[in-house]
Amino acid sequence: GLSELCGTGIYDQSKLVAMMDRFAMLSSNSHLGKAAKNLAWKHGRFLVGEKAPEFYSRTISGDLISSKTFEGRPVLVEFTRVGNPMCERETVILPDLMNSYPEFAQISFILNEDKNAVAKFVNEVGIDWPVVRITENSKILEDLDVRSVPTYMIFDGNWSILNYSATEPSRGLD
To answer: What is the rounded CA–CA span in Å between residue 60 and residue 46?
Structure first.
């Protein structure tokens, strides 16, 4: 990400994205130019502080849920997959983690075609927050540019991005 590329200082992300875009245009035939173009695209898609696209969906319990459901509260959003050991390992720690951060709401989007497998996993882990079962063609994956799982995102109470593509659920909550 940008922080790994530029260090841990505070930077204006939009200026860095513009700089990478310019570098990519000037070096369009080089590998570095192509890498800069990809970074600019990825990080220019969503800027920290930018309002994310709204979503509307049904949870596995049948409740209608949307981004407005979490208005006024920061939200940890998890994209995971039942049957993927790495995803399951991360999801299993979330109940304890979320108890440490009661001010955060949580929603999990679980990739799996099998409703029963998702329900069984949710029950085994003890997930007591909203869960939406999605497929690889679900609109929210495209809207939030989720390209792999597990992926964690943190939003403020206005559905603006605070942390995009957090790699671990415990990073970024502080």
So the answer is: 28
